[in-house]
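Below is a filled-in request sheet from our internal design queue. Each sheet records the structural input a requester submitted and the sequence that came back. We keep these sheets so that new team members can see what a complete request looks like end to end.

REQUESTER: design group, bay 2
PRIORITY: normal
MODE: inverse folding
CHAIN LENGTH: 403
BACKBONE (tokenized):
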């Protein structure tokens, strides 16, 4: 399994597969293009979900930014549907003498990219790729702390990497809470995280206060993402509000120090990496369960580790968080990562916290019958059976009924 550095990436929103992925593809292709000064035009063609929701996700704007100073045309191809992956992007440099240099890439989710034929893929660094195998590794090496395992394979510097990303995520929340106004795009959706935060702060009920604060923090990141600001793929842009909200709450109100928070963040990320490895984090491939479901498992595992739950309980929380999002569809209205995405981040943060509570309070009485590895298997199967209209194409569900 690959490094957590491949999972947690800072990049431009609003979508890891539709902006960060294409951004990385464009940069990769530009760097590979020989004799750039003789290029008459760069022609970048978007297929599948990239074409159908590319406008709403600002995919064309991100590509044009990378090719700034070069003649570039972004083409939306709606006719080629037999694709290896729903997020396919062809990059072509057309030279003055008529010949061309062409490559096709896939944006496979969470900002990860690969060439269509031939893998652009970093090395595996973990000798296991499932929760079960990780548990066996822990017991056979007489280890009990998942973070120690992460540090063993990633090196001690991984903690600083996590702290940098958390710092960026927390700054995004704080800065977004100061912003109001209308989010970009035709939906004319009002940013409301600031108002929710004010209401939360004045609430006398502890339960209401916690729920509203988690909501405000989730919305803050999701609104920043909708503005196209830089966000961290936790584990995707569309679901980037969930994990930072949970951890920022603990950091701010329960006074865990940043090292404790960063270790918990990495443990959650490792759990999420099992989903990436064995299914996908792409809404275009498996629906929103792959994004919001994965973020919930990530958050539930992080909070469970932070509060000292056992490895079994961390698995329990991660599983519960995903199980009840199975089948969650991806139907962003008008192709914008706003409805249902922003509200869904808030709901998922509360859901992830509840999964932690279930693991803590129910696991002493009954073993969970569904393992985390099995729920990933079910998620993949369910996602494959979801109709295409409900997988980031904006053709079905809410996108169809809301105009
Ligand atoms: S509905 Fe879910 S998967 Fe689809 S764009 Fe929104 S957050 Fe991402």
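RETURNED SEQUENCE:
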């Amino acid at each position: 399994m690959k490094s957590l550095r491949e999972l947690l990436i800072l990049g431009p929103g609003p979508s890891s597969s539709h902006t960060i992925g294409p951004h990385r593809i464009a940069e990769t292709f530009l760097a590979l293009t020989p004799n750039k000064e003789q290029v008459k035009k760069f022609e970048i063609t978007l297929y599948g979900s990239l074409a159908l929701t590319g406008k709403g996700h600002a995919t064309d704007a991100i590509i044009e930014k990378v090719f700034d100073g070069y003649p570039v045309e972004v083409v939306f191809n709606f006719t080629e549907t037999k694709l290896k992956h729903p997020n396919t992007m062809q990059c072509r440099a057309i030279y003055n003498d008529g010949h061309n240099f062409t490559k096709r890439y896939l944006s496979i989710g969470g900002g990860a990219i690969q060439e269509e034929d031939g893998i652009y893929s970093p090395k595996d660094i973990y000798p296991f790729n499932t929760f079960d195998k990780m548990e066996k590794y822990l017991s056979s090496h007489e280890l009990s702390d998942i973070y120690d395992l992460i540090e063993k394979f990633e090196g001690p510097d991984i903690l600083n990497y996590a702290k940098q990303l958390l710092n960026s995520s927390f700054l995004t929340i704080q800065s977004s809470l100061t912003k109001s106004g209308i989010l970009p795009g035709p939906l004319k959706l009002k940013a409301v995280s600031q108002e929710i935060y004010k209401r939360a702060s004045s609430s006398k009920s502890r339960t209401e206060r916690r729920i509203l604060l988690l909501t405000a923090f989730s919305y803050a990141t999701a609104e920043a993402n909708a503005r196209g600001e830089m966000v961290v793929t936790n584990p995707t842009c569309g679901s980037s509000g969930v994990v930072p909200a949970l951890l920022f709450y603990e950091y701010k109100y329960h006074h865990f120090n940043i090292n404790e928070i960063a270790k918990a963040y990495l443990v959650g990320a490792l759990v999420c990496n099992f989903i990436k490895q064995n299914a996908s984090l792409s809404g275009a491939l498996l629906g929103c369960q792959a994004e919001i479901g994965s973020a919930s498992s990530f958050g539930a595992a992080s909070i469970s580790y932070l509060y000292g739950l056992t490895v079994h309980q961390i698995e329990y929380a991660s599983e519960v968080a995903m199980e009840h999002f199975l089948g969650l569809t991806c139907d962003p209205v008008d192709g914008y990562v706003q409805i249902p995405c922003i509200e869904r981040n808030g709901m998922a943060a509360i859901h992830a916290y509840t999964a932690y509570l279930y693991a803590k309070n129910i696991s002493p009485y009954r073993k969970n019958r569904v393992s985390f590895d099995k729920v990933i298997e079910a998620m993949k199967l369910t996602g494959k059976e979801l109709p295409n209209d409900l997988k980031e194409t904006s053709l079905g569900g809410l996108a169809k009924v809301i105009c």
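SHEET NOTES:
- The chain has two domains: 11-115, 131-401.
- Strands lie at 10-12, 39-48, 72-77, 87-95, 100-109, 112-115, 230-232.
FILED BY: M.R.
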